[in-house]
Specification:
Elements (H helix, E strand, L loop, with lengths): L1 H14 L6 H9 L13 H4 L7 E13 L10 E14 L4 E17 L7 H4 L4 E2 L4 E18 L2 E15 L5 E19 L2 E19 L10 E5 L2 E2 L9 E17 L5 E17 L5 E18 L3 E19 L9 E24 L3 E17 L4 E20 L2 E20 L7 H14 L3 E13 L5 E13 L4 E12 L1
């Protein structure tokens, strides 16, 4: 698998040799202005209109994170992620474009606790967990590719994305999660009256096999089937340590926007529904829980040639159902019913503005302010955790070219302030370890956060066909509970 991947990576790099000038394309492909259209170009038909020039890069990247104490125990207190990656956008003609990327990463997550399942953000709270945890290794393969073309007034496009992960631990408890994640998108847009009227459909198929084993029999500890807010499915916790997750999602994308380079109002709407099922493999594939997610996201804005103002809103409704198993016959448990026990509502609303100029110095400033809230509830015995935050971000970027050299700098600052928070738990019915976990989770959920990030990139043109580049990034987050996070990244590569 690894040799095949490296061969594909080399082939992808050779195919990008029909290159473009880095001085004229860096700002177009890497600048903040593209964030104004980041939702629209999820439609592969509109992706072809994102850039006027071709741009490709092959690079090695290393990202490091350290937290003084884990903000979320289930994600650990840091990571080390070295990665080889190639990204390409090729304009084959005025009508047609292709794009794609491939990546291989082999890294490590530090000090993960209360989580023995991969893709925590997707599957939470329905995970396998224990109180010990430890470091994990993560190996990841990424592939994606897209194609779009114009036929008279129609834009048509298709895109495929695939991710394969293997996360594991080589000391007890020896967790292993093997993930296959496939996404397909089909899109179309019709041009009339100076506007793109676009529609796209996205389908996702997800599968994870998940297990925990112990090689030291005297060191076996229970694995909990977590169900949210410090609860577990006690009947099947303990020694049931072989699971799999299956499911997927479907999404409809609707966009109305001015044709490329034109000014005017624009709008985006995304409607998505997803379902992921947790199944105990060793009990004849008995379904244990189902997580349903319905999400709507909308953007409404007005963009000029160098500025844009837009508002964004998203709302997600997550509902978890627990299956009720009857009396067993050998290892078969008939399902006699199910109940919705976990409910989670998330909302985010914001207003953003961006302005920039292209001159001897190409610069841009972007500001965003918003409000978010997260409400979680477990039905019985009733438990609640709620918090809301106001936030603001300010980002600036600068591009400068002289002779063979091009430079890009980016600096941003953000502040997240707690607006309201509430925790209600039946402490008298909870184990001490679960109490400590829930209290720590709430402590970081209600905290204030201050964040600063910076990135500097330098490109040196070697020949007309390619350039060498290096980028260095860093970040710092201060949490009001007295903890902090440091991030650093380094990339070295070639642009075509």
């Amino acid at each position: 698998m690894r040799k095949t991947f490296i061969t594909l990576l080399t082939l992808a790099a050779s195919l990008t040799a029909g290159a473009s000038d880095a001085d004229s394309t860096l700002a177009e492909h890497l600048g903040m202005w593209q964030s104004v259209r980041s939702e629209a170009i999820l439609n592969p038909a509109l992706h072809a209109t994102a850039y006027n020039s071709s741009f490709s890069q092959l690079y090695m990247q290393t990202a490091i994170r350290r937290q003084s104490e884990a903000f979320e125990q289930e994600k650990g207190d840091g990571f080390f992620h070295p990665e080889l990656r190639v990204e390409s956008f090729l304009r084959l003609s005025e009508r047609t474009a292709v794009w794609g990327e491939a990546g291989y990463m082999n890294g490590r997550q530090r000090n993960i606790r209360w989580n023995s399942t991969s893709d925590y953000d997707l599957l939470k709270p329905y995970i396998l967990a224990d109180t010990l945890g430890g470091d994990t290794r993560l190996e990841r393969y990424l592939f994606s590719g897209g194609y779009a073309t114009r036929l008279n007034n129609w834009l048509l496009g298709a895109e495929m994305l695939f991710r394969a992960d293997q996360e594991y631990r080589d000391t007890d408890p020896r967790m292993r999660g093997i993930v296959n994640d496939l996404t397909l998108r089909l899109g179309a847009a019709y041009n009339t009256a100076g506007y793109h009227w676009a529609l796209a459909f996205e389908g996702n198929i997800y599968k994870q096999t998940n297990s925990v084993v112990f090689y030291r029999e005297l060191g076996v500890i229970p694995e909990y089937q977590m169900t949210g807010l410090g609860t577990e499915y006690a009947r099947f916790s303990g020694d049931k340590r072989t699971l799999y997750y299956k499911g997927g999602s479907k999404r409809l994308l609707i966009d109305v926007e001015p044709e490329s380079g034109a000014a005017g109002p624009y709008a985006h709407l995304s409607l998505e529904e997803a379902c992921h099922k947790r199944v105990i493999a060793e009990l004849n594939s008995m379904p244990l829980t189902d997580m349903y997610r319905d999400q709507v996201a909308a953007t409404l804005g007005w963009r000029g040639h160098s500025w844009a103002v837009f508002t964004q809103f998203s709302y997600a409704d997550r509902n978890g159902e627990e299956h009720i198993a009857g009396t067993s016959a050998a290892t078969y448990f008939p399902i006699i019913g199910k109940r919705t026990m976990y409910k989670n509502h998330l909302m985010d609303a914001s207003l953003s503005a961006t302005y920039g100029q292209k001159a001897a110095l190409d610069w841009r400033l972007t500001g965003r302010g918003g409000y978010l809230q997260n409400h979680e509830r477990y039905v019985y015995p009733e438990r609640r955790m709620e918090y809301s935050r106001y936030y603001g971000t300010l980002s600036g970027e600068l591009f400068y070219g002289t002779g063979r050299w091009s430079f890009m700098g980016n600096l941003s600052a953000a502040y997240y302030a707690n607006a309201d928070s509430k925790l209600s738990l039946p402490y008298s019915d909870m184990q001490p370890a679960f109490i400590d976990k829930a209290d720590r989770q709430f402590e970081f959920a209600k905290a204030d956060y201050t964040e600063v990030k910076a990135l500097l990139r330098a490109d040196c043109k070697m020949k007309k066909a390619y350039s060498l580049f290096a980028s260095l990034g860093g970040g710092y987050i201060d949490c009001s509970v007295g903890e902090r996070q440091l991030d650093a990244s380094l990339s070295l590569g070639i642009t075509f």
